[in-house]
Recover the amino acids of this structure.
């Protein structure tokens, strides 16, 4: 399969700040690639280099077989993070405006139906919900039936229902052959949509692969965590059948399958250990992100691990 997007050794510095430090990867046609990474990691600079609005200092970018600047704009769709159409245009007028920029645009009402805002087609943009607004913006990027779509944080700030609807649209587009490169802070979004994920950190691609490959390589072990109400070391000593480590008031049993939870509970009960929570967890992309960037996501607690306790 031909690659729709190729980055080869991309490097870009702004004075002393190295935004991209030798980034190489490729996205196959009709694949969805999610770019994740902390703020300042270089995601926007990378997207701009790939869409031809930033000139790299070194390396090459290729879009649909040519340099991004030379790539046909007719075949490209870009949804920037801060895309705000005039507030007092209706959804239909917003999409029609963008359709007017192309010689042979798609039918506007068909696009409105595709992004699920046909019933609000005559509502002013400012009166639409956040999710509807973002879908109208997505619709505006579809007027030229692009082969490659760049979506910069497509669902940030949107409620869960609106997010799922947008995910459905993006999945449908990819199933129809559109190549999608999206940036996101939402690991569930990356896990659900992306065929492959690239984690950018400090201008470098720290890891790239399918979500499953990344979780296997960097997610850590699946296992059981027991939050102890009392002496944590005594609780760990009670769990002699498993390799344990302790952190704070928790005992962690790495690599324990969910089927073994009953035995863990029995061992804790036999020892008279009091605990407030017992949870089994399988590592996911958030664990990958945490282990490679050292940053936890909002709402997720970073659990400091004492290596000496191993
Ligand atoms: P991200 O999108 O991952 O937050 P960016 O690509 O925006 O990262 O930024 C990467 C680094 O480059 C940051 O340190 C940022 O401050 C810097 N940077 C980005 N654009 C510019 C610019 N136009 N001028 C100077 N520094 C910039």
């Amino acid at each position: 399969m031909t690659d729709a997007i190729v980055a080869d050794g991309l490097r870009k510095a702004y004075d002393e700040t190295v935004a991209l430090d030798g980034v190489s990867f490729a996205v196959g046609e009709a694949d969805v690639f999610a770019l994740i990474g902390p703020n300042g990691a270089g995601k926007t600079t990378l997207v701009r280099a790939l869409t031809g609005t930033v000139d790299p200092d070194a390396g090459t970018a290729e879009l649909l077989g040519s340099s991004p600047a030379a790539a046909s704009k007719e075949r490209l769709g870009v949804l920037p993070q801060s895309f705000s159409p005039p507030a007092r245009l209706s959804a239909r007028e917003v999409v029609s405006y963008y359709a007017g920029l192309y010689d042979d645009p798609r039918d506007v009402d068909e696009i409105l139906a595709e992004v699920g805002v046909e019933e609000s087609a005559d509502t002013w943009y400012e009166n639409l919900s956040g999710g509807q607004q973002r879908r109208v913006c997505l619709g505006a990027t579809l007027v030229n039936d692009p082969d490659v779509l760049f979506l910069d944080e497509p669902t940030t700030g949107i409620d869960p229902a609106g997010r799922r609807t947008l995910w459905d649209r993006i999945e449908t587009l990819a199933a129809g052959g559109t190549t999608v490169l999206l940036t996101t802070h939402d690991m569930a979004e990356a896990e659900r949509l992306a065929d492959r994920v690239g984690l950018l950190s400090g201008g470098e691609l720290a890891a790239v692969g399918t979500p499953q490959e990344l979780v296997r390589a960097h997610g850590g072990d699946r296992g059981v965590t027991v939050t102890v109400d009392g002496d944590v070391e005594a609780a760990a000593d009670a769990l002699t059948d498993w390799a344990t480590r302790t952190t704070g008031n928790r005992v962690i049993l790495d690599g324990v399958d969910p089927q073994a939870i009953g035995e863990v509970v029995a061992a804790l009960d036999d020892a008279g250990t009091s605990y407030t929570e017992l949870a089994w967890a399988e590592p996911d992309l958030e664990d990958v992100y945490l282990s490679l960037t050292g940053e936890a996501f909002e709402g997720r607690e970073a659990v400091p691990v004492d290596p000496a306790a191993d």
